[in-house]
Write a structure and sequence with these properties.
By secondary structure, this protein is mainly beta. The protein is built from 1 helix and 26 strands. The protein has 2 domains: 31 residues; 326 residues, Neuraminidase (6 Propeller). The termini are far apart.
Amino acid sequence: MASTSPFIAMVVAAICTAAVALAEEAAMSTASYQVICHDAGAGGYEAFPDVVRLQNGDLLCVFYAGYSHISLPTDDLPNGARVCAVRSTDNGASWSPPFTVADTPWDDRDPHICQLRDGTLICNWFTYYVGSRTRRPGDGVRYKEIWTVRSTDDGHTWSQPELIPSTAGAYYGVSAPIRELPDGTLIMPIYKELPDPLRVWTLMILSQDGGHTWSEPYMLDAENDDNDEPDVIARPDGSLLCVMRSNRGDNIMWRSVSHDGGKTWTKSVPIGFPGHAPYLLRTSQGILLVAHRLPNTSLHYSLDEGETWSENFEVDSVIGAYPSLAELPDGRVLIVYYEEGEGSSIRARFLRVTRDGVEFAPN
């Protein structure tokens, strides 16, 4: 039998090494997500997750649990969809069974979670009434209204739901967590949605007492009726950056800046790339991230506080998205998001973000 020449052996080894590297890269990019909740017991449709890392080190992820994208009360589910949560005590390696955070007699949608500096947890969401067989007592259109619950024991027990009066009997939704500003003010970015034809405006409500009472809404840009699903973050110079969904054309998101704590804002301008339900996070390295839906589940990062942004990084091919981010002690970033369609589940992946780019990280 003829022996293989050293040159051929070297080429074969190089090809094998390259093939292994490509296989590992493909496996990392397509198969390394976790399903952190498949069925919370309200019909098997889970969506709109939001995650926070608590001061005690736990990760708490709240989400919508129902039987479909809209889950109004039925005989089998008399309260409609509910707000549920799962908890991780090992930095996302494993997650608890789901438990209920809030369950009003209506469709409880798009929940979000924050922890204030004093340790209080506040979960905010909106209820949806259109077509529901149950109605909240009182006057008003009750199309969408915003509610909160709070916890002082790291989310093990929760208060009774409280309606925010300045959003009652109207058309207000929410798609982002409450943010605590450096001076202790709480700001909640919300939106007002008028149907037929669809028109949407971004607004802000403020609290000076830890979220017990809230201001009347402050309009961000009254001339732009395509500002939807806003999120906001404080920047090191004291300004606030708001990023918003667009529903028209190429779905190019909007941005606006406030220099007075969220009461007045610059005219909204296009950010340069499409997206729904943006979520903002600044890492410990000072890198600003925005995760969003479109295309599929995606992420951009900025090295100049949102003035310019990177190319798109696709996290997953699923279109559900409505992502949320949390940074772990080792520098990894956890992103949670959802699938779309019957049997939708909550997914999670780990990323590493540096000034050179984004890559997937091991679970």
